[in-house]
Amino acid sequence: MAKQYETVIGLEVHVELATRTKIFCGCSTAFGGAPNTHTCPVCTGMPGSLPVLNKQVVEYAMAVGLATGCSITRFCRFDRKNYFYPDNPQNYQISQLYLPICQNGCVEIETPAGRKKIGIHEIHMEEDAGKLIHDEWEDISLVDYNRSGVPLIEIVSEPDMRSADEVIAYLEKLRLIIQYLGASDCKLQEGSMRADVNLSVREAGVRQLGIRTEMKNLNSFKAISRAIEGERQRQIERLEEGKKVIQETRRWDDNKEASHAMRSKEDARDYRYFPDPDLPPIYIGEDWLEAVRRKLPEFRTEKMTRYRQEYELPDYDIEIITGSKPLADLFEETTKLCGQPKKVSNWIMGETLRLLKEKGEEPENIRFSPANLAKLIELTERKEINGSVAKKIFSVMFEEDVEPEAYALRHGLKTVNDEGLLRSTIESVIADNPQSAADFRNGREKAAGFLVGQTMKAMKGKADPALVNEMVREILQG
Length: 478
Hints:
Oligomer: single chain
EC number: 6.3.5.-
Distance between the termini: 84 Å
Radius of gyration: 30 Å
Largest sheet: 9 strands, mixed
Organism: Eisenbergiella massiliensis
Protein name: Aspartyl/glutamyl-tRNA(Asn/Gln) amidotransferase subunit B
Subunit structure: Heterotrimer of A, B and C subunits.
């Protein structure tokens, strides 16, 4: 009988915090600057430069800890993690080993078997390293220190996950919590959220953990899923062949769908940690902790309950809208302005999501304002524009955030409410289509729809379809 294996997974999630400046200096954290332009003597490790801690980093770390049920270490400090690598300018990284700021929390996820708690061992603050760019043509490597000193929190889970699905559910829950806090945008494609996967396998029923490997270079949920499955199979094959799994760090190549060994896995002794002598310990008093706790936002679960009670939206709408903080913010701000929650939800669930998908964009990239969406809804409700014109204006608004009423006036898109003009247009359409008129009078309902369509065409779409429909029937029956 073939052996059954269980996969054991823990994650180290690095999150770039949304501060304007770096953790120990005043350089910009903006993504995408020209190489080595967001730098100074501190973040490039120049001799004699001294770090000064960014208070906002501590508050973001505390907020994430509180939101994930962690206990906050009231007296914590920074340590030096020593290693030599070209993208590490000081030849050490300022991190936290002995007294991390948050410990012993958990995140609850939904699985096919029900709810499951994933333990968080600790959350610690640290600085990011620079970035190496390898030029294969010239056979050289270049270093960009813009990222050096960007503030990170590292969220270290317990080895509580057993499948790729559980890992993705945990990461999605974590990402949503952090986005709701405003602590990071958590964009995997830009590296502001990165996950290292620690994975081992063991025979089913065995309590002792197997030898784990750590996989790096994972920048999408799909890559993480493929890497987990690939590494799981690799370890099982080694064990089936009677070989040992070696504790090491491996790099995942998503194009080849395979991993390769980078180095043997270090432990804390290899890094020669010691308290950083240039940074004083941090004392978190009750007042400071309470001030951060008071600023915690309404999270998704509470928001979903409120949306049901306050706005009476369908569960499907609520699920989608609250699943993205930018969509939830857009919904609430627009609803506040126009007082039409279901109409706002319809525009988000329909045209907004359609255009985002069509253009391959994320909700964070939405350019139109809640004020302009509210005005568009009001124009439609007052029947100053019809539905098809509203969609036409929205497609322009989606790209350029135009003011809808001004755009409608400028392009002659407002609904024509001149009943005399409408009546004469309908009569002309009926005269040009006697067969359709006869068909309607003989009981063929579809014929009226054709005549309505022809009238809308003659009016260049600038009529109220409901009014046109009503008048077509009235004239045909008269």
